[in-house]
Amino acid sequence: MTMKNSFHFFENRDCEYFPCHDLKGGFNCLFCYCPMYFLKDCPGNYYYTEKEDARIKVCTNCTFPHKPENYGEIIKLLRNAVREGFDT
């Protein structure tokens, strides 16, 4: 998928970490740091690990925020989280 940089898509091929995930097609860097990290019902591929008595969400294998077609779903999830008070 070829897309131009815009308010809902940005691909930074000059980033030293690009691509940070193995993803075919368009790669959206807009959500480089995932805005859904604190969501309880995140649709991404994540797991939890324990470190120093803390539970940590690990999103290393998640490509959900990097798929251009998921922009609308991410915005919808964030709007709902704001309305509900970020139930984490």
Structure overview:
With about 90 residues, the protein is an alpha+beta fold. The protein has one domain. The protein contains one helix and two strands, in the order E-E-H. It has one helix at about 70-85, and strands at about 45-50, 55-60. A two-stranded antiparallel sheet has the order 1-2. It is globular. The relative contact order is 0.21.
How many beta-strand elements? Answer: 2
What is the residue-mean pLDDT, rounded to a whole number? Answer: 81
Counting helices, strands and paired strands, the structural category is: alpha+beta
What are the secondary-structure elements, in order, as H or E? EEH
Strand content: 5-15%
How far is the first residue's CA from the last residue's CA?
Answer: 34 Å
> What gross morphology would you assign?
globular
Question: How are strands sequenced across the largest beta sheet?
Answer: 1-2
Proportion of residues in helical segments: 10-25%
The biggest beta sheet reads: 2 strands, antiparallel
How many distinct helices? 1
Q: Rg, please? A: 14 Å
Unreliable stretches (pLDDT < 50, length at least 5) are none
Number of domains: 1
